[in-house]
């Protein structure tokens, strides 16, 4: 599983983890040292006292002289020196034994077939030891809390230039042409290198955008002039009484193709720029007026193919929409329906939410319905002279305008494209 915690949290975690590791080892070492020192020092003191009792007091026939808090037992002793059962199974050496709430240090020594046990009350020492342990635990917990606090403060300090750089990069597209370079605002460290990398990338992007602007401007200017010449020539030729029916049919096709290319140039130009302000001042039109024009424009070629165009204006959506985009979407769907329908009908139906283009063609398999909206993807039975960009253009326009386009099968066969026109907020 990929670790997706923020960098600041990882810094805090690293501080706390390192403190927990080092503090834990230090605390365990303190406890271990206390136990070792306790065993060695007290064992030495008790050993010296036990040797004195055995070699001096008992050998001289005297009773053991014991310091306060000490107890002495012999395996064959009687009375107060009788060996308690709990001490009989102890091994030779140092031990800690308990009698109710009392705790003792015990030193066991076997000599000449006899067992000697010397006890020393360690209740006070045990109390001080518990205080020491409590201090160690408290210090350990406080060190973890302090490490977390220091890690948080350090993470804020470390991440502050990164967060500032992120804010600058995020809003840089608004003033891309006027924005100064980022690198001079940062130190010559890793963040400075990142800022320099952003400056380089932004410079490359700025060059690309400038080339794109120049290209779209040149295309818009250079293509409109020959298209206008073609349209004007078609109008002049249409006034020639000597043209025959066949020539007039071809002239109408040229004029229609010229008008369609002019709309496409305008559509591609606006899609390439995709600026909110430029789209807001684009010519607006109602759905009903665009649908009336396209129904009249496409009726003749559709009927020439032996198909029926069913136009149902119904309740068209209210409001105005981008005329070039709306015309391009509806025209591309009608063209696509005509190319892939050999018999039957094509239906253009308006509704309160948008419009529907439906055909009685062979349809599109379910596994290909999403792919047909991708560039250069065409149906299994390719028709017409297109490159498979029509539906891709429809998808791009709908995404740009916030519209929704969907493809469903028609009954009993064919395709049903539904476009929902949503007004921008």
Automatic annotation (TrEMBL):
<dbReference type="InterPro" id="IPR036890">
    <property type="entry name" value="HATPase_C_sf"/>
</dbReference>
<dbReference type="Pfam" id="PF00672">
    <property type="entry name" value="HAMP"/>
</dbReference>
<dbReference type="Pfam" id="PF00512">
    <property type="entry name" value="HisKA"/>
</dbReference>
<keyword id="KW-0418">Kinase</keyword>
<keyword id="KW-1133">Transmembrane helix</keyword>
<feature type="domain" description="HAMP">
    <location>
        <begin position="156"/>
        <end position="210"/>
    </location>
</feature>
<keyword id="KW-0597">Phosphoprotein</keyword>
<keyword id="KW-0808">Transferase</keyword>
<dbReference type="InterPro" id="IPR003661">
    <property type="entry name" value="HisK_dim/P_dom"/>
</dbReference>
<dbReference type="InterPro" id="IPR003594">
    <property type="entry name" value="HATPase_dom"/>
</dbReference>
<dbReference type="InterPro" id="IPR005467">
    <property type="entry name" value="His_kinase_dom"/>
</dbReference>
<dbReference type="Pfam" id="PF02518">
    <property type="entry name" value="HATPase_c"/>
</dbReference>
<dbReference type="InterPro" id="IPR036097">
    <property type="entry name" value="HisK_dim/P_sf"/>
</dbReference>
<keyword id="KW-0472">Membrane</keyword>
<protein>
    <recommendedName>
        <fullName>histidine kinase</fullName>
        <ecNumber>2.7.13.3</ecNumber>
    </recommendedName>
</protein>
<feature type="transmembrane region" description="Helical">
    <location>
        <begin position="131"/>
        <end position="154"/>
    </location>
</feature>
<dbReference type="InterPro" id="IPR003660">
    <property type="entry name" value="HAMP_dom"/>
</dbReference>
<dbReference type="GO" id="GO:0005886">
    <property type="term" value="C:plasma membrane"/>
</dbReference>
<dbReference type="InterPro" id="IPR004358">
    <property type="entry name" value="Sig_transdc_His_kin-like_C"/>
</dbReference>
<feature type="transmembrane region" description="Helical">
    <location>
        <begin position="12"/>
        <end position="37"/>
    </location>
</feature>
<keyword id="KW-0902">Two-component regulatory system</keyword>
<dbReference type="InterPro" id="IPR050428">
    <property type="entry name" value="TCS_sensor_his_kinase"/>
</dbReference>
<dbReference type="GO" id="GO:0000155">
    <property type="term" value="F:phosphorelay sensor kinase activity"/>
</dbReference>
<keyword id="KW-0812">Transmembrane</keyword>
<feature type="domain" description="Histidine kinase">
    <location>
        <begin position="218"/>
        <end position="425"/>
    </location>
</feature>
């Amino acid at each position: 599983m990929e670790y997706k915690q923020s960098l600041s949290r990882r810094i805090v975690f690293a501080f706390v983890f390192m403190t927990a590791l080092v503090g834990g080892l230090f605390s365990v070492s303190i406890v271990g040292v206390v136990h070792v020192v306790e065993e060695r020092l007290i064992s030495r003191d008790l050993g010296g006292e036990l040797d004195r009792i055995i070699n001096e007091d008992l050998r001289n026939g005297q009773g053991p002289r014991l310091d306060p808090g000490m107890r002495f037992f012999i395996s064959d002793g009687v009375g107060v020196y009788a060996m308690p059962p709990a001490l009989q199974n102890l091994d030779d050496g140092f031990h800690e034994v308990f009698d109710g709430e009392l705790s003792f240090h015990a030193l066991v020594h076997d000599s000449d077939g006899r067992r000697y046990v010397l006890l020393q009350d360690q209740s006070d020492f045990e109390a001080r030891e518990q205080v020491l342990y409590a201090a160690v635990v408290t210090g350990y917990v406080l060190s973890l809390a302090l490490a977390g606090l220091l890690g948080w403060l350090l993470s804020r300090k470390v991440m502050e230039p990164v967060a500032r750089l992120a804010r600058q990069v995020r809003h840089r597209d608004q003033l891309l042409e006027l924005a100064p370079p980022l690198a001079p605002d940062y130190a010559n460290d890793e963040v400075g290198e990142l800022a320099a990398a952003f400056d380089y990338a932004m410079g490359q992007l700025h060059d690309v955008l400038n080339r794109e602007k120049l290209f779209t401007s040149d295309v818009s200017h250079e293509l409109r002039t020959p298209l206008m010449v073609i349209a004007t020539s078609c109008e002049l030729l249409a006034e020639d009484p000597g043209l025959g029916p066949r020539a007039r049919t071809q002239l109408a096709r040229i004029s229609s193709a010229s008008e369609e290319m002019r709309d496409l140039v305008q559509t591609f130009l606006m899609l390439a720029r995709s600026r909110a302000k430029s789209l807001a001042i684009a010519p607006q039109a109602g759905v009903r007026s665009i649908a009336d024009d396209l129904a009249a424009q496409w009726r003749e070629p559709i009927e020439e193919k032996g198909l029926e165009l069913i136009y149902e204006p119904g309740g068209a959506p209210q409001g105005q929409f981008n005329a070039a985009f709306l015309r391009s979407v509806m025209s591309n769907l009608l063209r696509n329906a005509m190319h892939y329908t050999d018999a039957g009908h094509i239906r253009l139906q308006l509704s309160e939410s948008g419009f529907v283009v439906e055909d009685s063609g062979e349809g599109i398999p379910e596994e290909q319905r999403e792919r047909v909206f991708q560039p250069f993807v065409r149906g299994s039975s390719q028709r017409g002279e297109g490159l498979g960009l029509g539906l891709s253009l429809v998808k791009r326009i709908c995404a740009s305008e916030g519209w929704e386009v969907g493809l469903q099968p028609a009954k009993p066969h064919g395709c049903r494209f539904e476009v929902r026109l949503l007004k921008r907020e």
